[in-house]
Design a protein that fits this description.
heterodimer, A: alpha+beta, Methylamine Dehydrogenase, Chain H, four-stranded antiparallel β-sheet, 27% helix, B: alpha+beta, Beta-Lactamase, two-stranded antiparallel ribbon, motor protein (chain B), transport (chain B), Roadblock/LAMTOR2_dom (chain B), Dynein light chain roadblock (chain B)
Chain lengths: 772, 97
């Protein structure tokens, strides 16, 4: 722009100089174009490089000019062919040849080699023309005795053992330090998934049964769950009257039937079955081998047997009847027809024991002996010939324990004679299973528990035998098969079959059992009879051990379902646990409670738990792993005293507790998971607890002895000390007396001197004498 | 001789030891505290197993050798100590704690 402005300035006529002066003022700088002035070239050495790179001809090119003679220009030409190779030197060639300078010799070569086996496929077929069995037998190589001796002496063996024993011992020590067989995963899992609340230990009410027809002023005396049918429970009813009242109302009582009622969960109002008995039943049991046989003990001392095989169908299918009777339930009771199909039938008893030879007073406890042994008249145990439970033991407050056998002792009488003698007509619908026993049944062993020193006897209230299962556990299939084999078909209707076999004695069978008495004593005795030397009669043995720890009548003597030698006794105001064989005393004796205990039972699944019922309707649940000085839980069930407790297990999740109260109501409670599911290792922990208690008892015994010794020693020492002290004091006294006398003499002298009575010379001389 | 007896007795009297056996290189028992049939059975079976274990160890590392073999089962533990020629071993291979 500056240039242009210059140009403009030059070209423009001078008239416009005035305008362009302004432009000139704005552009102060004047760019003057100077064309480049040629300068001499300064060599910087680049022409050398160019010279080097450039290509020059190094030699001068030769120039040849070849021409023909002048005269041959334009002359006629002759062309002819001839072979170049035929004429010598017609051409010159440069033959190619292998120049050794340019050949490269390969000195190294990379080659891969692989070795493969020579494979050959071939086949052959054998022809088995002559089949023959062949066997081989071999024996291991062994050293002979001499060889062994020499080897044992050899130095090699010694060195070997020396070198190896260290590592072996280290390995053994490792095993000792740590238990290598523990599966850590299993031990880590303490409990399976719990069902329900862990902290919940409250018994939940499931159902309660009251019969409005039959139960008025009645109480329940015994409960028994049906061993096989779910939801069926039997209770025995008795009048709530004392002895005098019974005597008073005896006339009225004869008219009212004494019953055992069968209740089912599906029908809380109508009992399913009613068993009749001649008098009030105070205890009864289902037979473990056949749940259709029931034995019970009456208030008048009779033992009663029922056979409900005919009704077994009816009670099994209880649920069906429950669902169809829905409509009937809505109707009030008085509208119900008395002889409808649903009404429970009365089942008469099959057999009762003989009145002369049976118990004279109330039968307090009845047990079936287990079906692996039977007892003869002497009380010795033999192998059971019939394969079924065929013997019973009962105890009564007439101070006797009787053993009964339900098999016929003599061949059944001839029918013609029987018809004449029979006074009691047996109704036709009563099964004839036990007809041979009816009214003529007598016990084959009679045991009396004599109190030493007095003519009185103990009154047994409850018994506990070894090997009794509380919940009719299902045994090994093998054992059941064996028993079934021995028993044969329908054993209870062929009771004579067993008697034909020979008795086989069982060695060393434990025939001792625990008895609880009315006075609160626990007695351990043997049921074998001894022969009295004088009279030759069979008498029962004296009790081996007697313990008086309870203050009131004992109501429960029960073995733990887990340990055969642990027995629970409940009586009066306290609870005791005993171990068979430990004679120093009970393992556990609870403190006296405020209310009297009336019933109790071990838990069926947890070894540390047992239930105790009190007279105010409260139930105490003891858990030995939690607290041993008092019950773990207490719960109120009803307003009156609890008369019987019995738990039952249907499955691992459902466990029920049947509680009977004094007013005749049966409560069914569900046991919560915490009380029914055992902890891991609970059986072992409780067993260790009992072991500790046994060792504690032994320790206290020892301490007692040591204390007694110490006491006598102390006594002796104190006597010795007394005599020594007497001597010492004599000498001391004499010395003291002498000192006192000398002091007195000095004092006397001094005072006399002070008074001036003794002449000075004497005083001085005496003082000199003193100095000397 | 007495030394041998003493060593064997010491091992046998360890807590939890059921039986002890000394077997030669071919698997023939020299001395045992168990009954004959058991001894023969154990000797035969364990000899083969020990040989196999030894060859395994050597295949993996020819400079290595089997020093101890322990077989732990649900019920028992079997310990086999083969004769081992002395090898200088570093801390890695010895394991007794």
């Amino acid at each position: 722009m500056k240039k242009q402005s210059q140009f403009l300035w030059k070209v423009l006529p001078p008239e416009e100089q005035v305008d362009t002066e302004e432009v000139k003022e704005s552009v102060e700088e004047v760019y003057v174009y100077k064309p480049p002035i040629p300068k001499p070239w300064v060599s910087l050495g680049s022409e050398k490089e160019i010279e080097e790179e450039s290509v020059h001809e190094s030699t001068v090119r030769a120039k040849y000019k070849i021409s023909r003679e002048r005269r041959q220009f334009g002359a006629p030409i002759k062309f002819g062919d001839y072979n170049a190779s035929s004429v010598k030197d017609s051409y010159i060639e440069c033959t190619a040849y292998a120049d050794k300078n340019f050949t490269v010799k390969q000195l190294e070569k990379d080659i891969a080699i692989q070795v493969i086996p020579i494979l050959m496929d071939t086949y052959t077929q054998t022809q088995w023309k002559f089949p023959r069995n062949a066997t081989t037998q071999y024996m291991p190589r062994e050293f002979s005795k001499e060889e062994r001796e020499t080897l044992l002496q050899s130095k090699d063996l010694k060195d070997f053992l020396n070198s190896v024993s260290l590592s072996v011992e280290a390995a053994l020590q490792q095993n000792e330090i740590m238990n290598v067989f523990i599966d850590d995963w299993k031990v880590l899992a303490e409990e399976e998934a719990t069902f329900g609340d862990k902290t919940d230990s409250h018994l939940k009410e499931y159902q309660s049964f009251t019969d409005l027809h039959n139960i008025k002023d009645k109480t329940i005396t015994c409960i028994c769950w049906h061993p096989t049918i779910y939801g069926l429970i039997a209770v025995s009813i008795a009048e709530r009257l004392s002895y005098e009242e019974r005597v008073q109302f005896s006339g009225k009582l004869l008219l009212q039937p004494s019953l055992i009622l069968f209740w089912s969960f599906s029908d809380p109002i109508h009992p399913q079955l009613m068993l009749q008995s001649p008098d009030d039943i105070f205890c009864f049991r289902f037979c473990p081998s056949n749940p259709n046989i029931i034995a019970g003990g009456c208030i008048n001392g009779q033992v009663v047997l029922w056979d409900i095989s005919a009704h077994s169908e009816r009670i099994v299918h209880v649920k069906g009847s429950g669902s169809t009777s829905k409509k009937a339930v809505l109707k009030p009771i008085f509208l119900l027809e008395p002889d409808s199909n649903k009404d429970a039938p009365y089942v008469r008893h099959c057999a009762v024991s003989s009145i002369e030879y049976g118990h004279k007073k109330l039968v307090t406890d009845i047990h079936w002996l287990t079906d692996n042994f039977e007892v003869n008249r002497m009380g010795y145990a033999f192998e059971n010939r019939s394969g079924i439970c065929c013997q019973l033991v009962t105890c009564s407050i007439d101070c006797t324990i009787y053993f009964w056998d339900i098999r016929p002792t003599r061949p059944p009488p001839i029918p013609t004679d029987k018809k004449k003698e029979e006074t009691v007509e047996v109704p036709h619908d009563v099964p004839s299973t036990f007809l041979h026993l009816d009214l003529s049944w007598r016990p084959h062993i009679r045991i009396t528990l004599a109190k030493s020193g007095t003519t009185l006897d103990h009154c047994p209230v409850k018994l506990s035998l070894r090997n009794e299962s509380l919940n009719y556990q299902v045994q090994d299939a093998q054992i059941l098969q064996q028993k079934a084999q021995i028993a044969g078909e329908d054993p209870y209707h062929n009771l004579e079959s067993g008697l034909a076999k020979i008795l086989k004695p069982i060695e060393d069978y434990n025939t001792k059992f625990f008895v609880g008495t009315e006075d609160g004593e626990v007695i351990y005795t043997d049921w074998r009879m001894e022969r009295d030397h004088d009279s030759g009669r069979l008498i029962s043995q004296k009790p081996l051990n007697r313990y008086a720890v309870h203050d009131g009548s004992i109501n429960t003597v029960q073995r733990s379902p887990f340990y055969q030698d642990i027995v629970l006794t409940i009586g009066g105001w306290n609870v005791a646990i005993w171990k068979e064989g430990v004679s120093q005393g009970p393992l556990l004796l609870s403190a006296c409670s405020t209310k009297m205990y009336t019933s109790g039972h071990w838990s069926l699944t947890r070894p540390a738990v047992f239930f105790v019922g009190k007279e105010d309707g409260y139930i105490d649940i003891w858990d030995l792993l939690e607290k041993t000085h008092e019950p773990a839980h207490t719960q109120n069930i009803c307003i009156t005293s609890i008369t019987y407790i019995r738990p039952w297990m249907f499955s691992t999740r459902q466990q029920f507790l049947a509680i009977a109260d004094y007013f005749g109501t049966l409560h069914i409670l569900e046991i919560p998971w915490t009380l029914s599911h055992p902890l891991v290792n609970e059986v072992q922990s409780v067993y260790h607890y009992f072991d500790r208690e046994v060792s504690h008892l032994k320790y206290t015994e020892k301490r007692k002895e040591i204390r007694a010794k110490q006491k006598t020693e102390l006594h002796l020492e104190s006597e010795k000390n007394k005599s020594k002290a007497v001597q010492k004091s004599k000498e001391q006294l004499e010395a003291e007396l002498r000192m006192n006398y000398e002091e007195y003499l000095d004092f006397e002298k001094q005072t006399l001197g002070n008074l001036g009575v003794i002449p000075e010379t004497d005083r001085l001389s005496s003082s000199f004498r003193d100095l000397i | 001789m007495a030394e041998v007896e003493e060593t064997l007795k010491r091992i046998q009297n360890h807590k939890g030891v059921i039986g002890t056996m000394v077997v030669n290189a071919e698997g023939i028992p020299i001395r045992t505290t168990l009954d004959n049939s058991t001894t023969v059975q154990y000797a035969g079976l364990l000899h083969q197993l020990t040989m196999k274990a030894k060859s395994t160890v050597r295949d993996i590392d020819p400079q290595n050798d089997l020093t101890f073999l322990r077989i732990r089962s649900k019920k028992h533990e079997v310990m086999v100590a083969p004769e081992v020629p002395l090898i200088p071993c570093n801390r890695k291979c010895s394991s007794p704690l």
